[in-house]
Amino acid sequence: MTKRKCRLWWPRHLSSSSQPHSSTFLFGWFVSSAPLEIVVAFVIDEDVFSSIGSDLEGILRKTHKRMPTSLQNRSELSLLGYCSVDSSSNGELHSHRESAEESSHVNGTPCNSAPHTEQNMIKDRSGHWICGCHKVDGFLEQYKTCTQSNSGQLVYGSYVYVSRNLGWIPKLHHMHWDMQVSYNLDLHIVIYGTPRYGGHHFYLGSQHSENAKTISKKPKWVENLSQKKPVLDLDAVILATNCAAAATSFFEEQVSPKRRALWFHCVYMCITIMWQLFAVCVATLSTSVYIILQLLHFLLSYGSDSCVYPTIENLFIRTWKNIHVRCCQISYWPIFLHNNDSRSESCVEYAEKASLRKHSMWLSVVIDMLFGNLYGLALLTHADSVCSLILTITSDITNNWWLISCARLMGNPAGFKLNTELAGVLGTFSLNTIQIWSTLWGSMRFVFILFIKGLAVSGVLFGFTTPASLTVDLITISTTHVSTLHWLISLIYSRQIQATTALWRLFRGQKWNPLRERLDSYDYTVEQHIVGSLLFTPLLLLLPTTSAFYMSFTIINMTIGFICMLIEVAISVIHATPYTKILLWLLRPSRFPSGIWFEIFPVESRDMEVVQESFDSRASRSDILVSCLHSYTYNIGELVGPDFRYLQSAVPRSSISSLVYRVFSGRSLPSPLYNLPFVPGAGLPPSMPWMSIPFKEYWLLCHDAVFACNPLHTH
Amino acid sequence: METTQRRWRKVAYGGMQPGFDDNHTDDTFLQEMVMNANVVKRDMLKVMLDSVSISQYLCIVALVVLVWAHTLNSTITENFLIILDITLVGSGFFILLLTAKMLSFKLLLSYAIKISFFTTGLYVLSPIYHTLTRSISSDSIWALTTSLVILHLFLHNYSGSTIKAPGALENPNLTSNISLNASIVASLLIASRLPSRLLVFAIILFSLQVFLFAPLVTYCLKKYSFRLHLMFSFVLMAITLTCVYRLHKLLFVVLLGLLVFVNLVCPYWLIRIQEYKFEINGPWDEAKLCFNITD
Known about the structure:
Chain B: Its main location: membrane. The structure holds 2 protein chains of 2 kinds. By secondary structure, chain A is of the alpha/beta class. Chain A folds into 3 domains: 287 residues, no CATH class; 121 residues, no CATH class; 194 residues, no CATH class. In chain A, 57% of the residues lie in helices and 14% in strands. Chain A is built from 25 helices and 14 strands. A two-stranded antiparallel sheet of chain B has the order 1-2. The termini of chain B are far apart. Chain B is elongated. The relative contact order of chain B is 0.15. The chains are: A alpha/beta, B mainly alpha. Chains A and B meet through helix 19 of A and helix 3 and helix 5 of B.
């Protein structure tokens, strides 16, 4: 007889420190893989079992239908087996060979000894092999007649005492599997704490999903080569453990609906009424905000025909996007909150993930509004001083720094040999541009205080990100002259560089082949050489002048761009931070498991020795290993890491050398933030349609969503 | 000793010959060797006469540098320069008409058109050249110019002419192009030091005319009559030496020494070391085409 490996997953709350007083039937899932996995969800006593009677199959089926689909496909909730308690002894294993011989008759004693030789197997009336577990068969007859499924898969065991902290756990003696009986079982008992919502749950870790992403770039046949059948199918087992609590409660609901005490009902009613009131308040408030938003949208849609609307939209592009996102968040939060799928009722892991998704949106809006209110109030109280400070700084920068630097460029800055005429032309042009622009903006000085106040009010109303994006837009608009000048000078500079390099290649007798992207040798005529050298000298000698201007404008432009980029990154970080996750992680880190590990306990071997003496030669012993399932939790870096991974993709890695090359060759710099998804983590797809449901429906939606969050509402 | 051993035959086919190695050579190996097949036997007088053309070009370049120096010193005025330019163009055309054999009206017309384009372009660009190097110190300009002129002399193609005479087959190679570019850039650098735009235009025109057309003119002259060529060279050398003497004594000594070196010392040296020349040619050499491939 071959040794059969099996692993029993036993809930910790079922292993009591005192001896169990009645034998129990085990219910759970069989997951058939290389070692057979037996996941025990709950147990019921013999008397409860007999009282259920023929309803058992129906109840089991209903419970099974409420499990998640992936678990339903993988394994069915069924009766696993029988675990007896030995009342004659104090629970230690010892040989029962004598009682085994006695049990050759039909009315046997409970079978709890490990080896059964084949002589003890007798046939019953219908010709099936049965072992000495006859008492059990009495109960099982009912079960077998009810179920159409093959009830040949059962395990039998008894409770043994392992140690003080582990208590009494079942030890399997033999199992019936596909009309065969296996006695030699290599048993591994894993004790797990039943996952509950709000407590802990188990999760295998996400390494395999990441591997799948990298493999998907290869063709299919390569994938099939590297795919091996996994040795351990722990996915289904962990899913089953996460669903164990739900299975228990569903079963118990149907078996015996709870009757609660009267005082419990009163408290329940009070809390329900209070929650209703709260839901009504929140729904009313958010519906009024929704009405205002719809009104504004209606008014704006009239103005979209004129040409002012797209101009404003293009100028204030970031603010526009931000306000759109904020309005969508305000409109859609009840939908996200209301989102309940049936599978989150049964599996703790799915329930936790669903709750994170549900609460993420409104929490981020609330936190953003909080920051915005703080910022807005602070700015309102100090509006005057901020206004004068900003005006002083800008006029200081323009007059004392930039104009003077332009004037210095027309001289001989830092010993550069600049051509006076060309420097004069470029410098005068840029000086005039700067003067005109700053005069224009200076005349709007009295409007500036109003603008600061508007910024503060928008912070109060819309949250912190809106004034930040307004600031970025305004900086971009007010420095348009810088970017225009930079664009012009970079055009001149890049053309000059390209012409000089082309003429240099001419002197070497080579030509650039743009089709093949390589240098070809080419015979130029004498006239081409003459004209080439006549043009080469002035281009080369005017290059220092152009490059001096280009460098100074590039530095200014890049500084402004850098400041804008910092603010934009801050905005996207505020949008992307998972506040729910962080808050829950701070309160209870066990809700975020990242992997599992087994703690192995040594089993006292004196049970084994006693059994070994009484073995006869044909039987062999079965090995047992006891361990306990624990989970790792994430630290804060791993927790929020995936949400910020988009930042890595926005800044390309090889950019430093290519950036330097682009600057020196005069090409335009890549703007990394055009690739940045504007609201990466808030769970919104890039283009959300404007919500246009009737107000009454919206009120009902809000009310239902908030009421569903009632803590007593859960099953 | 094997009597059946065949004699070894030098054939290009047939494979291995039995009894001999694959790389067997017999005593007839070196019979077809030819020594010094392409070596021209030189005569001292001939070499000296040939070196006159080198010293002629040297004097032409020296004259150009003289004109530059005088213009920078404001000894020469603009009008003089412009008259000089026109004279040079006229005389060049005249000599070409007299001496060239395959000269057609069409070719002359194409030359005239090119020259007019060229002159117009120079006139338009001369304000740019006028202020090009104003911020660079004079020492850098003199150093750069000197090195460029030396580079030009070093890489110049003394055997032909840059602008192709009608009927010439040679393509300009890289070194002759580089020398041309060096001379043009040197003249531009010098021109940017001058005080007025018209001077700039005139000096560039003058330098370019000389550098581009002087080889062609002297080539045509040489082909027409060798005696005329010799006379012209000696007259040129005398004028150059006189003018340089008037300008700077040291430079005169240098130029004189250079001319003597080129005309007298180098031929003697060449003849002396000619006897050590040992060239081996044989059937083992690469095959060379003895005809030109033309389309």
